[in-house]
Amino acid sequence: MNDCIKCGECLAVCHAYKHLQGEFSGPRRLAVEYPRFNDTSSEAFMCTTCGYCEEVCPAHLPLTQAIVRMRTQMFPPQNEGQQKVLDLALRTNHAVEPKEYNAPTTGRTLLFPGCVGKGRLAGKPEEVLKLLAAAGAEPYINPGLVCCGSPLSKMGAVEEVERLKNINYPILAEAEQVVTICPGCTTMINKSYGINALHILEFLEDAELNFIDGDNVRIYLHHPCHLSRGVGPHVMDIARNILEKVPGVTVLDCGSEEDCCGGGGGVLAAYPREAYATADLKAREAQEAGADLIVAPCPFCAVNLRRPKRLKAVEMSEFLCSRLK
């Protein structure tokens, strides 16, 4: 990290630094300056790991990775919200309390439903399976799948992540094809497991989906950080192309679509007030732009963006499923 030139580009784009003045000192201090003195700070848990700082860094420094490493040094968590997530994972193998759902257990395309989906908060498994089937897949869910480990990796729970990976790996490795709903799961499975996984939008890119002539709706298309930066910006192009094929849909250009929702990286669990404030700002911008609906290709973002209750916020595959013939 000695290549930092103190240009301030990371501070200019960091939403936490802008919105939490006095509480969050920014990625440069946390990722570059603190490690030089072998020091740590609880501020590291205010970072949403959105990756924007790394994207603009002229020295290409792994700033987000450095902040996550600091969290590992501070494990176990002292924050009540994080401890609840960790306790839940130890008890259920999931970061969200799982609920019952109906799904085939055999097929050719394995859907990794993720914790938010299995908790039926957003990206509900039945609706995602229906969408995949409409795209020509033979989707199924193996009931033995558990949390991918991404939420726990963000709090530095290295041993717990490895435990969950050891449960999932044999199931994923045997699958003919793996599709995910959550961008965090997509990135985790690809990079940490070394198994190729497609985000559902990548799977749907060339699919011939038949939609009803639904009501006119103006959509604010949120760009999830862990999708556009973790999986790749091409996925948001796919998202827009698919939505524009749905009768009655107008995708708005508001200018703030790429801004973080504020809930990622464990912030929603650790600092719900701060996550709410960022989501409220974004929801208000969508409202002022004339949007009727916020669509997020990420279950976790959908959950956080609906909290202010300014506009309805839905996960994208659920919206598409609602418009299928």
Automatic annotation (TrEMBL):
Keywords for the protein's UniProt record, in alphabetical order: 4Fe-4S, Iron, Iron-sulfur, Metal-binding, Oxidoreductase, Repeat
InterPro entries named among the record's database cross-references: 4Fe4S_Fe-S-bd (IPR017896), 4Fe4S_Fe_S_CS (IPR017900), Cys_rich_dom (IPR004017), Helical_ferredxn (IPR009051)
Molecular function as annotated in GO: 4 iron, 4 sulfur cluster binding; metal ion binding; oxidoreductase activity
Source taxon at top rank: Archaea
PROSITE patterns documented for this protein: 4FE4S_FER_1, 4FE4S_FER_2
Presence of the UniProt keyword Transport in the record: no
Domain 4Fe-4S ferredoxin-type: 33-67
EC number(s) recorded for this UniProt protein: 1.3.99.1
Pfam families the UniProt entry points to: CCG (PF02754), Fer4_8 (PF13183)
PANTHER family, sorted: ANAEROBIC GLYCEROL-3-PHOSPHATE DEHYDROGENASE SUBUNIT C, GLYCOLATE OXIDASE IRON-SULFUR SUBUNIT
Protein name: Succinate dehydrogenase/fumarate reductase iron-sulfur subunit
